Amino acid sequence: MLSGLSWPVVAGLLLAGVFLDLLLGEARRFHPLVGFGNLATFVQRRLNCGAGRLWRGMLAWSLVVLPPTLLAAWLCSVSGWAGLAAHALLLYLCIGLRSLREHNLPIAAALRAGDLPRARYLTSMIVSRDTARATEADLAKASTESLLENGNDAVFGTLFWFAVAGGPGAVLFRLANTLDAMWGYRNERFLYFGRAAARIDDALNYVPARLTALSYVLLAPTLAGKRRAWQCWRTQAPAWSSPNAGPVMSSGAGALCLALGGAAVYDGVVEQRPPLGGGTPAHAADIVRAWRLVLHTTVLWLACAGLAALGAHHA
């Protein structure tokens, strides 16, 4: 492993980071990712102009991602318990498992209570699509899709890169993923400037996304769900523009036997997206089911790390 940590140590640190996240949740004040977002916006406004936007985008990515990653590497290079604590703390700051629950389960609660205005407001906080006139089915679909996709982006990709390169790996992945969310648009402003951010995120996410998709297949609650998840992954994922969101969302939708994808409103325009999964439309209860799938996948990955640690110990 690039981190130089043994598997028993990596497994213990993964467990510690996830435990801290579930116990403490996101930092309410002065969260590093908020500061990073402000820095990224500052740099983007000054470099995303004039000619050579492709090269300017690559320079901007380097300026905002590499210094924090190198700082993380320096912190984790400290010997003894201090270095191990730095690894665990960085993983805690990068992972977002509890955040997924806190942002999505209230949407399910609002839908069950019939409070559509609150459900629309809560959903608007986590997705970019328009929610002002969204129906209950629209909101449940949006939340479920967000949970499935961000299970990979906010949790499993971070765990994967931590296992590969420790705290610095988690930092690199999370910052790259954040920049893709900020700059990876195919519009006039970001088509060239954001291309480096989008391609780097695609590369870093390639393996974690497919491991996530496979995990969703394995953890489908029924045999029929497992078969459907695998079939949806193989047949539906290629239709999605994102090479990584397609496998994750199609397999997750198939595992839950839900019909996701399809029409969604962005900036007042109805966009017909490729289908995801198959079965019934999403309802409030399916948001909870999607959260449980993400949670169970986290447990699966921690168990795999534990088995790897056990095997390394007896080798």
Give the key terms.
315 residues; mainly alpha; two-stranded antiparallel sheet; 2 strands; globular; membrane; transmembrane helix; cobalamin biosynthesis
Q: What is the radius of gyration?
A: 20 Å
Overall number of structural domains? 1
| Helix amount | over 70%
Low-pLDDT residue intervals, each spanning 5 or more residues: none
Large-scale geometry: globular
Structural class designation: mainly alpha
Number of strands: 2
Biggest sheet strand line-up:
1-2
Please describe the biggest sheet, giving its number of strands, its sense, and whether it closes into a barrel: 2 strands, antiparallel
Number of DSSP helical runs: 11
Order of helices and strands: HHHHHHHHHHEEH
Family: Belongs to the CobD/CbiB family.
Protein name: Cobalamin biosynthesis protein CobD
Membrane topology: Multi-pass membrane protein
Transmembrane segments: 6-24, 54-75, 293-312
How would you characterize the overall build of this protein?
The chain is mainly alpha-helical and 315 residues long. It has one domain (7-314). Helix content is 71%, strand content 5%. Strands 1-2 form a two-stranded antiparallel ribbon. A hairpin with a 2-residue loop joins β1 (259-266) and β2 (269-277). α2 (32-47) runs antiparallel to α3 and α7 (136-183) crosses α11 (284-314). The longest helix is centred in the middle third of the chain and has 48 residues, at 136-183. It is globular, with a radius of gyration of 20 Å. The two termini are 16 Å apart. The mean pLDDT is 94.
